[in-house]
Structures are given as structure tokens and as C-alpha cells.
Automatic annotation (TrEMBL):
Belongs to the JARID1 histone demethylase family. Pfam families: Cupin_8 (PF13621). Residues 18-161 form the JmjC domain. It comes from the Eukaryota. InterPro entries: Cupin_8, JmjC_dom. This is JmjC domain-containing protein. SMART domains: JmjC (SM00558).
Length: 161
């Protein structure tokens, strides 16, 4: 499947769903996987590839504030995404969930942060950017990130140790 074919179905996607489609097992769609190449710098050094993921969704799709344990290179293929990053040293101000399976996710809703419940959050410094088609963002391990699709969007992330 060519990426352009996926893009042509953008209107269908927007009306059919309001959440992002995550192809965490990218190899499950070999036709699409053949169109995506892993950049050489993802396999340099001693680390090994962990996953190549595809993310497809309509405008206003949100990935809540969380961190991943691996190096992450987020490549924007189609559309635009807003990304906000917080350094690991600010973890206490991001109020991670306390349950074992969700400790990498924040309790704070960035769309409507409750500063009464999470007072330190408003003082947590962050970096942000908008990714355009053809741009990539490196997200180091354990860096917190929030992602908002500004338009219909297709992205690929490369995770490695």
C-alpha cells in the first residue's frame, strides 16, 4: 500500500473515527512496511532496534503525556503534529500514575490541567515544536512527551535501545 493511498482516504478516516490508529506491529502490514526505511542512524552504536511503529489519525488526536523507555525518532510523514517535551528531572511535577503498569503516564490532562490538584505542573519547564512533513524529532529515553495532531496525520516512530 502506498502512503499516498492512505492519505487519499483521510476524509473517510476523519468521519469514521476520532482516535489514532497505532500499528505497533508494523510488520503486520508488509505492503506499508516496505515503503518505510529505517534511517541508518537508528542502528548505529550498540543499541538494537525495538520497534517501528506507525501512527495514523485525524486532526485533534492526542497522545497523553507519557514517556517511553527507549530512544525514539519520531518522523512526520503527512500532516502536522505539536509535540511538548519535559526532561526526566521534572517527573515529580508531572504527577505520574502510581500503578505499576501506568507509571510512565501522567495524571495531568494537558488540555485542561487542574492546577489545584497538580500545583507543581504549572511550573514545569518544557520544550515544544510543530513537526511538519519530512521532519523528525529525537526523543531521548524517559523524556516525557505529549503529542497533538494539528491536521490529519501519519507518523512513524523508530524505537531502539
Amino acid at each position: 500500500m502506498k502512503i499516498s493511498m492512505s492519505a487519499s482516504r483521510r476524509a473517510d478516516i476523519e468521519t469514521a473515527c476520532s482516535t489514532e490508529l497505532a500499528l505497533n506491529q508494523f510488520v503486520m502490514v508488509p505492503e506499508l512496511a516496505r515503503d518505510i526505511r529505517t534511517p541508518d542512524y537508528c542502528i548505529l552504536g550498540e543499541g538494537e532496534m525495538q520497534a517501528v511503529n506507525a501512527w495514523l489519525g485525524p486532526a485533534d488526536t492526542v497522545t497523553p503525556l507519557h514517556y517511553d523507555p527507549h530512544h525514539n525518532l519520531l518522523a512526520q510523514v503527512i500532516g502536522e503534529k505539536y509535540v511538548r517535551l519535559y526532561a526526566p528531572r521534572h517527573t515529580p511535577a508531572l504527577y505520574p500514575h502510581e500503578h505499576h503498569l501506568t507509571t510512565n503516564s501522567s495524571q495531568v490532562d494537558l488540555d485542561k490541567p487542574d492546577h489545584d490538584c497538580f500545583p507543581a505542573f504549572k511550573h514545569a519547564p518544557f520544550l515544544d515544536c510543530v513537526l511538519l512533513p519530512g521532519e523528525m524529532l529525537y526523543i531521548p529515553p524517559k523524556w516525557w512527551h505529549f503529542v497533538l495532531a494539528k491536521t490529519s496525520s501519519f507518523s512513524v516512530s523508530y524505537w531502539w535501545k
